[in-house]
Amino acid sequence: MSQIETLDIADWAPQPGDAESRRLAAALEAGKVLFLPRLRFELQQREKRFLDPRWSDRKAKNISYDPVSKAIKGAQGNASDLEDLRHLVERFHQRAVGLIRHLLPHYTTQLRLARASFRPMPVAGRASSWRKDDSRLHVDAFPSRPNRGERILRVFANVNPRGEPRVWRVGEPFADMAQRFLPKIPRQLPGAAAVLSTLRITKSRRSEYDHTMLQLHDRMKADADYQKNAPQQTMPFPPGSVWICFSDQTSHAAMGGQYLFEQTLHLPVAGLYDPQSAPLRVLEKLMGRALA
Ligand SMILES: [Fe+2]
Questions:
Q1: Cα of 253 to ligand 1 centre, how many Å?
Q2: 4-287 domain in CATH 2.40.30?
Q3: 252 alpha carbon to ligand 1 midpoint, in Å?
Q4: Which of 46, 90, 159, 191 is the most buried (most CB within 10 A)?
Q5: Which H, E and C letters describe the chain, residue by residue?
Q6: pLDDT-based confidence at 125, cuts 50/70/90?
């Protein structure tokens, strides 16, 4: 069964109606990717100069926009260019957030907006270690940012000017992956979370949920046989398309492409249409205890 749900929408402010929103939420919350092949993020003629890796400061992987400070980071250029670039990423941020609010109005009051990013570098050959290699199937979990089950919802737009797709592999449903790896995962050591937090390796206390998600992320990536033989489909997202997924739930791997916009949004488990679909609840059910 395909993990991709295609949507015929060409408008950043669609009015899907309640039944359609519920259907879309059910697909998304089951870990599927919503694919909008007709929704294009347009660059104005004078913005097309930003489709060039030279705007990256090379220290950060991405150029990012913070919706609180409204500033960009990770870019280099003169003040007027940087202001134009900031405007561009800000416009994507507004479009992407508006899209989620229109498609899934039930989320609106509980969304917490995180950074938008522009990724001008090619996917190929940027990994420095297997753990950071996003061309291996994984679910998103970040060592320094414990979230205790809060969801990671992401909106992507391919803006490649040369017709190059953003190629993903999309893997098996979350519960299938978890059942495969959970028996191999050791419990979090007593006291470990406090030590990590005191040393400021984590920005807040790492819960057992965060420990388990990091272990799943690492064990998926480290398992060459799983990477090759796990159920999966290759999906080329063409330029001029948008896709959306819960990246803490959808197994994904970025295989190629260049020039991508991405918006991250967070949502508490209680904010979902079906809270029982969350990785936190799925793992708690499989492990038989509370994790956060
Ligand atoms: Fe990822």
A1: 7
A2: no
A3: 6
A4: 159
A5: CCCEEECCCCCCCCCCCHHHHHHHHHHHHCCCEEEECCCCCCCCHHHHHHCCHHHECCCCCCEEECCCCCCEECECCCHHHHHHHHHHHHHHHHHHHHHHHHHCHHHHHHCEEEEEEEECCCCCCCCCCHHHCCCCCECCCCCCCCCCCCEEEEEEEECCCCCCCEEEEECCCHHHHHHHHHHHCCCCCCCHHHHHHHCCCCCCCCCHHHHHHHHHHHHHHHCHHHHHHCCCEEEEECCCEEEEEECCCCCEEEEECCCEEEEEEEECHHHCCCHHHCHHHHHHHHHCCCCC
A6: low
